[in-house]
UniProtKB/TrEMBL annotation:
Belongs to the class-V pyridoxal-phosphate-dependent aminotransferase family. Csd subfamily. This is Cysteine desulfurase. Residues 25-394 form the Aminotransferase class V domain. Catalyzes the removal of elemental sulfur and selenium atoms from L-cysteine, L-cystine, L-selenocysteine, and L-selenocystine to produce L-alanine. The lineage of its organism: Bacteria, Deltaproteobacteria, Bradymonadales, Bradymonadaceae, Persicimonas. Its EC number is 2.8.1.7. The keyword Repeat does not apply. PROSITE patterns: AA_TRANSFER_CLASS_5 (PS00595). Its cofactor is pyridoxal 5'-phosphate. It comes from the Bacteria. Keywords: Pyridoxal phosphate, Transferase. It catalyses: (sulfur carrier)-H + L-cysteine = (sulfur carrier)-SH + L-alanine. It comes from Persicimonas caeni. One of its GO terms (molecular function) is cysteine desulfurase activity.
Length: 405
């Protein structure tokens, strides 16, 4: 493990906690990641020194808050390599961004018998908003299947695309198998039939470099709390031509330019999608998290985590009674597994008793679990602060579970 990652562990105060009398092993970053001290301090500094509202105050504190908020937007633009900061909308998180898009695209562009295509890997957050949009508009939801490894079946996806396809919405990285989807290929296929593309990036940007221009997608959403930032804020990137055509579905203060009793005209991008007071302190915390990730280097983080994921699969494969679920060709973030004869929730509880935090259950992907005939899985997910001894502690606790099973 490189020196910078050894040192980085010291930046995460929660790793000094003991859980059930053991030093904490945190392997649940796919649910929410840990916050390093520079992020915690930056939020504290902002709250202590600049508690003005943004884009409306006439006083200095408000101006400073607005400046810091817009600087955070510029940091997010650089991180995702968006062409301009006005293409970055602050949302409350990936779920909020996806709901916003499903409502707006549904209202503006979906008609009867039109089709929305998603994949079988989708989290409920990128499924239910489209179900609802299709129901409201009389459109159809099509679901692309997987192959036996847990990779998207690209031929089957292609076969679903046609002249009625209006939207293709897929996850960048699966929160169940860790599958990295070939977004560029999916986007090209969708664009060839004139569909708009939405990428659920909740699991990606803490694990690999994300460049929305290279991916070529029309929309990309992610959550701060999965990339070392605080809860309550996320990003929605949009291609300019699409953002300009999108009806704002949330209205109120902040997002208007002229208002009369009967009419309102809307602000320029990106403010027209940010009705009400935005999550200012959270956005500033997110920018500090991005600075932290960039200082370590996304490529180095990707390498470090890939090495840990490979080690996790190798160690779990060596346990007789353990089955690793999903063997994607390219993996990030998570490894799912089950212990023979034991419910995943029981395994999760046993691991917790050993100080090892994982997630167990459906992972908000119930239709996928039903298709696989599973009651859920146990999911270990890594962050840049994990090391091989965390994985050894996981396997030690899994071995104990195998004895109970
Ligand atoms: N999509 C995926 C793939 C996820 O893993 C998650 C979080 N588990 C979400 C969407 C939703 O993210 P949030 O809860 O931050 O809105």
């Amino acid at each position: 493990m490189s020196n910078s990652f050894v040192q980085a562990r010291g930046d995460f105060p929660i790793l000094r906690r003991r859980i059930n009398d053991r030093p904490l092993v945190y392997l649940d970053s796919a649910a929410t990641s840990l916050m390093p001290t520079p992020v915690i301090d930056q939020i504290g500094r902002f709250c202590a020194q600049q508690p003005g509202n943004v884009h409306r105050s006439t006083h200095l504190l408000g101006e400073q808050a607005s400046g810091a908020f817009e600087a955070a937007r510029a940091t997010a633009q650089r991180f995702l390599n968006a062409p301009h900061s006005d293409q970055i909308v602050f949302v409350r998180g990936a779920t909020h961004g996806l709901n916003l898009l499903a409502r707006a695209l549904g209202e503006g562009f979906l008609g009867e018998d039109d089709e929305v295509v998603i994949s079988s890997l989708e989290h409920h957050a990128n499924l239910i908003p489209w179900q609802q949009a299709c129901r409201r508009r009389g459109a159809k939801l099509r679901v692309a299947p997987l192959d036996e490894r847990g990779d998207l079946d690209l031929d089957a996806l292609d076969a679903l695309l046609g002249p009625r396809t209006r939207v293709v919405a897929v996850t960048h990285v699966s929160n169940v198998f860790g599958t990295i989807n070939p977004i560029r290929a999916i986007v090209d296929a969708a664009h060839a039939v004139g569909a708009v593309t939405v990428v659920d990036g909740a699991q990606a940007p803490a694990h690999l470099p994300v460049d929305v221009q290279q991916l070529g997608c029309d929309f990309y959403v992610c959550s701060s709390h999965k990339l070392l930032g605080p809860t309550g804020v996320g990003l929605m990137y949009g291609r300019r031509a699409w953002l300009e055509r999108l009806p704002p579905v949330e209205t109120g203060g902040e997002m208007v330019s002229e208002v009369s009793w009967q009419e309102a005209s809307f602000s320029a991008l990106p403010h027209r999608f940010e009705a009400g007071t935005p999550p200012v302190a959270q956005a500033i915390g997110l920018a500090a998290a991005i600075d932290y990730l960039e200082a370590l280097g996304m490529q180095a983080i990707e390498r470090h985590q890939n090495e840990l994921l490979e080690y996790t699969v190798e160690r779990l494969d060596a346990c007789d009674r353990v089955e690793v679920i999903g063997r994607p060709r390219r993996r990030a973030s998570v490894v799912s597994f089950n212990v023979e004869g034991m419910h995943p929730l029981d395994v999760g509880a046993l691991l917790d008793s050993q100080g090892v935090a994982v997630r167990a259950g459906y992972h908000c992907a119930q239709p996928l679990m039903n298709d696989l005939g599973l009651q859920g899985t146990v999911r270990a997910s890594v962050g840049l602060y994990n090391n091989r001894s965390d994985i050894d502690r996981l396997v030690e606790a899994v071995d104990l579970a195998c004895e109970f099973a």
